[in-house]
Amino acid sequence: MLTARLQHLGLSAGDRVLDLGCGEGRHVHGLYMIGGLEIDGIDLDAEALEKAEVGLSSLPPPRGSDDGVARFAQGDATALMFEDNTFDAVICSEVLEHLPDYHAAIAEIRRVLKPGGGLCISVPRAWPERICWHLAPPPDGYPFQPGGHIRIFDKVDLKISIERKGFRMVRRHYAHGLHAPLWWLKCAFWARRDDHPWVKTYHRFLVWDIMKRPPLTRVLDALLTPVMGKSLVMYFEKEGKL
């Protein structure tokens, strides 16, 4: 289940890509399957990184003739261990809403991204996210979990914040039209969000959709995503030339 559309990053064989806040590695795995890329997945969560490694080892051979390289490491989005101008592209998916100082993370992304390099950032879309905050309010609700979401982004404000760091937005879209109802159900039944029968049933439906990708749900997702897609996805280019 990829949020970023990898074809929008303009990747070529031999490019190096950073997935910042990679979680369990879904975008790293997708990039690896392209073949011929050098990919670094960085996250603070050691358990998620272990699952990402397991997932990588279970993948079939990449489509390209060159397998490429994928690796994972624990790291902080606001203090990356990489040198300046290291990466040809960066993905930062569903991360900024967790960070107290997301401006520092954007500055670090700019530092490690080559001039002219591509950046994909995704965050929860504002209006579906507001429903989650309303259904599971403080003091112990949805936005108040350790490591949880601490802000709701306005798409114009986020675009301006990123462009002020030396980027130019080139496109945007929404993603995951079928996924917002899962989180509304979780928040509506917050005390039983992991075992409520409605939550479990809808989750099984999403897993079935991801694995089988039947035409009916693909059409439904395409229709719903512009209206209620859970994620806002924005693509930028770092300004400047080497």
Automatic annotation (TrEMBL):
GO BP, sorted A to Z: methylation
Q: Its domain of life?
A: Bacteria
- Protein name stated in the entry: Class I SAM-dependent methyltransferase
Q: Which positions fall inside the Methyltransferase type domain? A: 18-120
Q: Write the record's keywords in alphabetical order, separated by commas.
A: Methyltransferase, Transferase
A GO molecular-function term, please?
methyltransferase activity
